[in-house]
Amino acid sequence: MKSEFQKMMDGELYNFHDPEVNAAFGRSKEILVRLNSMTRRNPEFPKVLRELIPDMPDSSTISVPFYCDVGFRIKVGEHSFINKNCTFLDSGGITIGSYTKIGPNCGFYTPQHPTNYLERRKPIETGMPIKIGDDCWIGGGVTICPGVTIGDRCIIAAGSVVIKDIPENCVAVGNPCRVIRKINQ
């Protein structure tokens, strides 16, 4: 029988009040208190950032303040930049490609709650992964919903709410976000 933590890792319905799941959430909150009290110039910043996001490449960075659920479910490619005040609810996993720029105040939300209101009263959810390709530009204030994939070389206009996948080489805008044109490479 799987633990609730393993169910979370496998993208299955899990109890987010489970002690092991709560321990993972609590661990990240303690690290975030330290990280968000530093500047990127602090020599300890990269070490604390890697406590939160273990595979964070040296060539990529996150501006603080930054918020997330567990941290270790975030994967960031080389030479990417995540601006300040972003929130990554990453229980379902968030992958950011290389050379991708993310504007301030963006929200990446992987948790998905049951649609049945009686089930939604329970402390259960699933996490649906979010994937952002290489060479993307995510404008400020963008919201990316559970399960969304954005292809390589996309531009998502500021303030957009992305509820569906966006194919590669596109400019997409709005709420709900929609493709307005292809980008010629």
Explain the overall architecture:
With 185 residues, the chain is α/β, with parallel strands linked by helices. The protein contains four helices and 19 strands. The strands form four sheets. The protein has a seven-stranded mixed beta sheet, with no helix packed on it. Strands 3-6-9-14-17 form a five-stranded parallel beta sheet. It has a four-stranded parallel beta sheet with strand order 4-7-12-15, with no helix packed on it. The model has no long low-confidence stretch (mean pLDDT 97).
Rg estimate, integer Å: 17 Å
Reported for the largest beta sheet, the result is:
7 strands, mixed
The dominant shape is globular
* Topology order in helix (H) and strand (E) letters: HEHHEEEEEEEEEHEEEEEEEEE
Q: Work out the number of β strands.
A: 19
**What is the typical, i.e. mean, pLDDT?**
97
Which structural class fits the helix and strand makeup? alpha/beta
Poorly predicted runs are: none
Q: Fraction of residues in helices?
A: 10-25%
Spatial arrangement of strands, main beta sheet: 2-5-8-13-16-18-19
Q: Strand share of the residues?
A: 25-35%
Task: Give the number of helices.
Answer: 4
What is the terminal-to-terminal distance?
49 Å
